[in-house]
Every structure is written in C-alpha cells, then in structure tokens.
Amino acid sequence: MTQRDDGHDYRDSKNKAMAHEKKTNQQKYGVALAGLNNQINRLNQLNPSDTYTKQQLSTIIDDLTDVLVDLKMETGVDV
User: Fold this and answer.
1) CB 3.0-4.6 Å disulfide test: which of 8, 28, 42, 72 passes with 4?
2) What is the pTM of this model?
C-alpha cells in the first residue's frame, strides 16, 4: 500500500469541494439560466416590421446573450 501525502489529501478535498459547488450552482442557478435562455429565444423569434424596432431588439438580444454567457461562465452551469 502506498502512502499518501498531505498534498493528495488537499487535492482530494479541493476536488470534492469544487464538485459540491458545481452541483449547488446547478441547483441554484440552472432554472434561472434556462429561463433567461428561453426568453432570449422568444425575443429572437419576434419579427417587428420597422427597422428601428428591429435594431433595438437586436441590441437587447445581444446584451442578454452576453449576460447569459457571463453567468454560465461564472457559475459553471450549462443550459
């Protein structure tokens, strides 16, 4: 049987903590991120007739998509 050093124990604890944090984030933020993604998709399906509204809608979709990507990266949650 090999002997494990403190570094291995620290890594094991750190990996367990990271796995727990990812699971907690999934439970905590998964529904909200999925909802945001759904709303972005619904906005993307709108087809306004005038150019000004199309440009505004495009800007809103781009901004919300940036927020979604940032939140996914920050939380580690993928939707």
Assistant:
1) 8
2) 0.65
